[in-house]
Design brief:
By secondary structure, the protein is mostly helical. It is built from three helices and no strands. It is rod-shaped. The relative contact order is 0.07.
Length: 77
């Protein structure tokens, strides 16, 4: 003969806790995977040319307009 009993609060709470632990585990795996796959490096490294460096220095205010123009003229020759 089968015995049926009603689920009480402990049964529901246990099931809910197991489900939350499973979801937490999955979330941790997803976050760790995303962190490992994330790269801050560009796929192809670009080499800075002399003109690029001069442009950056001019933009920072390290070079005057005359110095920048002189470097640009020297590099383009």
């Amino acid at each position: 003969m089968y015995y049926y009993r009603m689920m009480d609060a402990n049964d529901w709470l246990g099931g809910l806790m197991m489900m939350l632990l499973g979801l937490l585990f999955i979330a941790i795996v997803v976050v760790v995977t995303m962190k490992l796959l994330k790269t801050n490096q560009p796929a192809v490294e670009q080499k800075s040319t002399a003109l690029d460096i001069a442009k950056q220095r001019y933009a920072k205010g390290e070079l005057s307009r005359e110095e920048f123009e002189k470097i640009k003229k020297d590099v383009s020759d």
